[in-house]
Amino acid sequence: KSHSKFSPLITNNLKLFYFFYHSRTVLSLKLANVMNDAAMINTNLIGLVINFAFLFGFYYYASSESRGKIWKQVGYASVFLLVITAYANFEDPAKIEFRLGMLITAILLQNLLLLILGGIQLSMFAIYPNKPAAKETKDSKKNK
């Protein structure tokens, strides 16, 4: 059951949000382990906790139709991360540091592109403001 009358508006638009943000955090945590960087490990552990808190809250307010979609995306993200981390465990640490860094950068560049496109879309409100339609007069209605 949905807990809010507005939750379908929010939860039906999940798209790939969880996939990208959770994956980036886990990949950054793996990269931190490869680099043996304690500060980066702590930061990504905190990020992982925040991601799980977000997912729990999102799941709690999701409609029953959306919950299946959420589990599906969690499954996709888990398989993707399982493949990448398994590969990272067998690859040369010097090579995997560069490759994980490039993968994380690709995800971040995609987010930058979406930020730029969102900014352009929002600027359209200022460039083309909404104008009310012209009201018809009684004379123009009679002529029709």
UniProtKB/TrEMBL annotation:
<feature type="transmembrane region" description="Helical">
    <location>
        <begin position="74"/>
        <end position="90"/>
    </location>
</feature>
<keyword id="KW-1133">Transmembrane helix</keyword>
<feature type="transmembrane region" description="Helical">
    <location>
        <begin position="102"/>
        <end position="128"/>
    </location>
</feature>
<keyword id="KW-0812">Transmembrane</keyword>
<feature type="transmembrane region" description="Helical">
    <location>
        <begin position="39"/>
        <end position="62"/>
    </location>
</feature>
<protein>
    <submittedName>
        <fullName>Uncharacterized protein LOC108044194</fullName>
    </submittedName>
</protein>
<keyword id="KW-0472">Membrane</keyword>
